[in-house]
Amino acid sequence: MKQVDQIAAENDEADVAEVTVEVGPLSGVEVDLVKIAFEEQCGVVDLAKDPEGEGSLVRSTTASTRLEILEVPLTVRCTHCYAESDLSSFIFRCESCGSGEVQVISGDEFRLISLTLAEGAIHDR
After folding, report:
1. Does residue 57 register a pLDDT over 90?
2. What is the pLDDT of residues 39-56, one digit of tens each?
3. What is the pLDDT of residue 123?
4. 61: which residues sit within 8 A by CB, 6+ positions away?
5. For residue 70, what pLDDT is reported?
6. 43: number of Cβ within 10 Å
7. 96-124 in b/e burial notation, b at 16+ Cβ within 10 A?
8. Measured distance CA(73)–CA(64) in Å, rounded
9. What is the C-alpha separation between 59 and 77, in angstroms, rounded?
């Protein structure tokens, strides 16, 4: 949420219409908890400090802000045959040659992919 608030602040405190995040099964993040935390955050108004040290109310996300969660598969690359495969379980074996020496190439991330600012929602400072 800090990234979202920072981007909104860089755009004259524009309201955020949509936030898209990517979550993998090895990220350590529970999708349902992200949804609950996002809904909670959308109802919060923060007191932020502007560069002159004056307090100002900042609310980049609102109750109408949409959250899109892209669930990324756990993908590995075999270090022997270089085949890539999506794993359906946490058994780290190459689906092509059966080797247990694989490298995770996707599925351990939790990151902000994009956000859409609401049109015409620029606030006066």
Report:
1. no
2. 887 765 444 444 444 444
3. 36
4. 1, 4, 5, 15, 16, 19, 38, 41, 42
5. 95
6. 10
7. eeeeeebeeebbeebeeeebebbeebeee
8. 29
9. 42
Give the chain's mean pLDDT.
80
DSSP string, the chain: -HHHHHHHHHTTTPPEEEEEEEE-TTSS--HHHHHHHHHHHHT--EEEE-TTS-EEEE--EEEEEEEEEEEPPEEEEETTT--EEEESSS----TTT--S-EEEEES--EEEEEEEEPTT-PPP-
What was the pLDDT predicted at 46? 45
Tokens, residue 44:
């919060």
Q: What angle do CA 94, 96, 100 make, to 5 degrees?
A: 25
Are 88 and 81 contacting, i.e. CB atoms less than 8 angstroms apart?
no
Rounded Cα gap, residues 124 and 105, in angstroms: 44
Sheet holding 16-23, edge to edge: 61-71, 16-23, 110-117
* Neighbour-count burial of 44, counting CB atoms closer than 10 A to its CB (0-12 exposed, 13-18 middle, 19+ buried): exposed
